[in-house]
Amino acid sequence: MMRSKFWQGLMWGGILGTVVGAIIGPAARPQKKPLVERSTDAIRCTTRNLMREARLARKRLIKKMD
């Protein structure tokens, strides 16, 4: 009798622990930031910065050629 209650408790504890872990686990994990921001303002700003860098690089190359 004692032995069967032990195994029964062990099984219920395992099931309950699995359910609680499945619910709490994802909630406790920190949210990851997206690798690249996809908003139009972010894309516009990135494009503007790339164009500025290209313009400066072109000016440096022209200066070196002269």
- Taken as a percent bin, the fraction of beta residues is under 5%
Q: Which runs of at least 5 residues are low in confidence (pLDDT < 50)?
A: none
How much helical structure, as a percent, in the residues? over 70%
Described by strand count, sense and barrel closure, the largest sheet is:
none
- Alpha-carbon distance between the termini? 97 Å
Count the strands? 0
Assign an overall shape.
Answer: rod-shaped
Q: Give the C-alpha Rg.
A: 30 Å
What is the overall pLDDT average? 84
Give the count of helical stretches: 2
Q: Which class of secondary structure composition applies to the elements?
A: mainly alpha
Protein name: YtxH domain-containing protein
Keywords: Membrane, Transmembrane, Transmembrane helix
Transmembrane segments: 6-28
Structure description:
This protein is mainly α. The chain has 2 helices and no strands. The protein has helices at 2-28, 40-65. The N and C termini lie far apart (97 Å). The mean pLDDT is 84. Keywords: Membrane, Transmembrane, Transmembrane helix. The chain crosses the membrane at residues 6-28.
